[in-house]
Here is the input.
Amino acid sequence: MAEQQHRSRGRSSEETEQVATPEVDSDRKEKLDDDVDAILDDIDDVLEENAEEFVRSFVQKGGQ
Amino acid sequence: MTVHRVQGSEVEYGISVQGQPHANPMVASTHVVNSYASAHGLTRRARWDFEEESPLRDARGFDLSREVADPSQLTDEDLGLANIILTNGARLYVDHAHPEYSSPEVTTPRDVVRWEKAGEHVMLRGAELAAQIPGNQPIVLYKNNIDNKGASYGSHENYLVRRDVPFESIVAQLTPFFVSRQIFCGAGRVGQQQDGSVHAFQVSQRADYMEVGVGLETTLKRPIINTRDEPHADPRQWRRLHVIIGDANLSEVAILLKHGTTSIVLAMLEDGFLPPAPPLARPVEALHDVSHDPTCTVLVELEDGTTTTAIALQRHYLDAARRYVVEHGSDPETDEVLERWQSVLDRLERDPMECARELDWVAKLSLLESYRSRDGLDWDHAKLHLVDLQYHDVRPEKGLFHSLLRRGRIERLVPDDAVLAAVHEPPRDTRAYFRGMCLTRFSTDIAAASWDSVIFDLPGYESLQRVPTMDPLRGTAEHVGHLFEDSATATDLFRTITQR
Here is the structure.
């Protein structure tokens, strides 16, 4: 729920700023999106294959 | 007193053998430890000396009898599992079914960060070396606390605390602190309940495994306040507060805050400065509720029927600490912890996502949310569980924490060269210096060691010679550095120390 709240809050402040400086802000947003995409691409490359099987077979004995 | 305090950390690592989900974890863990020992000249494998260990001693003043103890509580019986001391003064061993690194004793939260991070390098190297044993498959280690199927393993903190602080006030004053501090030292988890059966994110890995308020157990019915009382120091003066509630952190800032804020709270407690913390109506329930709420806004009930938040509880301690340093003085390390503590609380209150560069659970949640929005995944999706698990993989090329670090998305505190030096070198300002230097210089003459002893096996002596090191602040570089410079052999050193 709060995720949604945060997102909508972010969006409204973006809109306000866009009125003032549209080019700069959209550039920044694009760069941020690019950055997040690049990270996910990075991580896609290193994530273990067959997530379901990998996660299921990670079984540990209890410790302290 | 400030954040300066004798302290240390212990981390049990998750372990898996690639392609062999049913491999015996004790065997794999033993390979990690022994491979590391063999490759680093610790061929004698100086063993752990159990003489001063009493895991069944309870801080409330009684001993649990061995007959009624669960076998998993008996940590002092040498099961023949690997158990060695490193040149940096740390202990590397197999605890139950996990390899564990116990940091050497240090005196500042920053040094905890440094020597705990060194431990990650030790584990990584041990796993790499174990994979070179003919017939062995690669071993992967995870600095986390859960398998999300019901099993949990610990990452403990230890703090030396003055014995004259009544244990009841430790319980009363620390319970609300431990319930709420997870908002900055939680490591994040996909899944709620011990077996992960509820598909949702939560702040802490360990919270759901804490089942009682106070207790001696560490492997079952885990308590918010653990009463194990082995000070490894003069018991008339000191107790060791053994904290089992924490998560294993990869973020350096989270480790610093975990140890730094706890150290300040303990200092205020010892000085009788800490105003009474508001008692929680149901601490265990509150702990779970706070962990299950990544917005950090959930209300928990106090004994008087009013409600509060984790952030407000933390501010109780922070405000007291602010007043405390004005009256008792401060230092740069303490100021750093206070600044970061305040900054993190302020930002968690505005929007927790602002802490994605510093806190493990926020960094992890931010990554998970990016995946969820790009791929439209629900919380039960295996890929999100994999992201959770792989965040903790200690291999730089596979661990997602490392991916974020490389992309400059995580703040660092300790430079790489300092961490790498700490893999081999002991801290200079505790007895770990003496222990570590004995191993560095004379490993073939050391039969065993522990937190409070080093045992020599010297040519010409019929029996083993035990040098007790009961004071954590003796045996420092300042005290004994010149002895190592002046001693060509272990026998020289021993004779100088004992005047024999």
Observations:
- Chain B has two domains: 7-420, 428-498.
- The first helix of chain B runs from residue 25 to 39.
